[in-house]
Structure formats: C-alpha cells, structure tokens
Amino acid sequence: MRYSASEKYEIIRLVEQSSLPVKQTLARLDIHRSTFYAWLKRYETGGIDALEDRKPVPRSAWNKLPEDEQVAIVDLALEKPALSPREIAVTYTDDKERITSMTREWTIRGADRTTRRLREKSNAGTGR
To answer: Coil, helix or strand for 34?
Structure first.
C-alpha cells in the first residue's frame, strides 16, 4: 500500500508516542520495520517534504550496446546472411574489439530472427 507524506508523518508520530515497543506497534500497523526506519531517516534529514514518493530513476543496462554498434551488427548480419550468429560475432570482433561476446551474440540472435522473418515474408510473396 502506498502512503502519502502526511500519512507517513502520522505513522512516525504514532510509533514515537506509542507506549508499546516499536516492533509491536509496527506489527499492529502492518508496516515493515525497514520501511518505517527508511521513512524516519528521510523525515529526519529532509522534513515532511522528504516523505513524498520519489519517482524511480531508470538505470541503463550494463550489457546494452550503443545504437551505432547495434546498427553495424545488424548491417553485417544482413550483408552476410549465410553466417550464423556466432560467426557474425567473430567477424564483427575481428573488426571491432570493444564489445563483449555475449552481448554481441544476443544482438545478433535478435537480428538473425528479424532477417529470417524478412526472408520468410519475401519468399512467401514470391511463392517460393
């Protein structure tokens, strides 16, 4: 359940003023201790405004290739359709040493599926 900043503040005050131990009070409120202490820390450092929900920060994938390298690999796969994904990876590596084999192969497998679908569509249109 999501709580507003004012609700979080009220929970902090309630826990602090309770005659019960913190653990018991939180159990009755069905709030995990780590959640409560995270709220408390945010409140102590930044006041009630710090209790507002923060938007998640998107993280970049560790294995994502730059767009230009993805395009280069797909172009190579289209130029040499007879090569397997592994052979394309080796060919590309001979030209460019920078990318890791696993990431390169994932990109190539995706390109291989795409080129296979394109070939199937073009063959279906010609009646082959």
So the answer is: helix
